[in-house]
Amino acid sequence: MCYIYAGEILLTSSLDFEAQSSYQLTVVAGDLGIGSLPAYARVNVQVLDENDNVPGVLVNPLTESGRAEVMENAEVGVFAAYVAVRDADSGKNGAAECRVDSNDDGPGNCHFPK
To answer: How far apart are CA 40 and CA 50, in angstroms?
Structure first.
């Protein structure tokens, strides 16, 4: 993950919040004299989440055909399909909004808080 150069801790590879959100490093220091005793310091690194994942949308119409099927004479408000939205990001970056574009009557909206 890192190496120390001139008193700085530098990354040697990229970080991914979804893979690991924190790291705990131990820095060991010692002088070059005979009988030197080491000193230790702990460094805690928190990885901040970036909005780097695209939400996934799952539509489940609960039909054998896998298509949303609604009778033409169905009443307003009849069930057409379940929709789930998932985003691997955390916090606000993982919340999702979606819009359902209709062919005739304009868009509908839904909100999926994380």
So the answer is: 32
- The 3 state secondary structure assigned to the chain is CEEEECCEEEECCCCCCCCCCEEEEEEEECCCCCCCCCEEEEEEEECCCCCCCCCEEEEECCCCCCCCCCCCCCCCCCCCCEEEEECCCCHHHHCEEEEECCCCCCCEEEEECC
pTM (2 d.p.): 0.61
Instruction: Please state, in angstroms and rounded to a whole number, the distance separating the CA atoms of residues 1 and 78.
Output: 54
10 Å Cβ neighbour count for 2? Answer: 14
Closest by alpha carbon to 15, among 25, 27, 29?
Answer: 25
> Per-residue pLDDT tens for 48-73?
999 999 999 999 999 999 998 888 89
